[in-house]
Amino acid sequence: MIQFRRLSALLLGAWLGASIVADVAVTQNFQTVDRFLQTPGNPGTSAQLNEIGWARERVILRRNAGEENNWIFLNWERVELVIGTGLFFLLLFGDRTQKLMLGLSIALLAIVAAEHFLFTPRIIDLGRVIDDLPASDPQYKTFWTLHGVYSGLDILKMLVAFGMAVRLVIRSKPDSDHFAREYAAKIPVGEKLTRG
User: Fold this and answer.
1) Distance from the CA of 156 to the CA of which of 45, 94, 186, 195 falls in 20 to 30 A?
2) Torsion angles phi and psi, residue 42, rounded to 5
């Protein structure tokens, strides 16, 4: 018998773990730029950075880090859509379909779809121009507002997924009559009368 509950919990655990890794990666991409510029690793690279100019190189490297983050977000969201769809079908065809869990899996898919199709493209477009804009520019403010909403949705998604995983892992008291009722439901009505 396929253990749908365990597979669903495993899938949610993998989803949560990979989400944390993706979040750490995009945060570290920008911090790595400053670490690299402070300690480039060898004297030759340090001399070249001094020729180009530290401030100028920082802008270029941060732009590159931004593009790496764009790639991570776009592709991770695509993977999340596949994982979310797989989770929905595991829960749908599981041994005991629970409407709450199905609803929560649809909510997770809706959050990822909103991030991928509504927020990420706009954040990417604005992220490519805000370095050249003053902090008072409306586009600059829009970027950080969208970024904040995206982060809030991401936290909500992780909380919902964590709650679902806990619900799947913690079992209620086993039903000792479950198999007897299931067997009785499969016996034709005429057979039940002759046996009783």
Assistant:
1) 94
2) -150, 160
DSSP the chain: ---HHHHHHHHHHHHHHHHHHHHHHHHHHHHHHHHHHH--SSHHHHHHHHHH-HHHHHHHHHHHHHHHHHHHHHHHHHHHHHHHHHHHHHHHTSSS--HHHHHHHHHHHHHHHHIIIIIHHHHHHHHTTGGGS-TTSHHHHHHHHHHHHHHHHHHHHHHHHHHHHHHHHSPPPP-TTHHHHHHHHHS-HHHHHHH-
CA distance 168 to 6: 7
**Distance from C-alpha of 83 to C-alpha of 7, rounded to nearest angstrom:** 12
pLDDT digits (tens, 9 = 90+) for 159-177: 999 999 999 888 666 556 6
Q: Taking Cα atoms as reference points, which of 80, 36, 81 lies closest to residue 60?
A: 36
pTM of the model: 0.83
Instruction: Let me know: does 167 contact 9? Beta carbons within 8 Å.
Output: no
In this structure, what token pair is assigned to residue 25? 């990666």
CB atoms within 10 A of CB 86: 15
Please state, in angstroms and rounded to a whole number, the distance separating the CA atoms of residues 188 and 178: 18
Give the whole-angstrom CA distance, residue 109 versus residue 103. Answer: 10
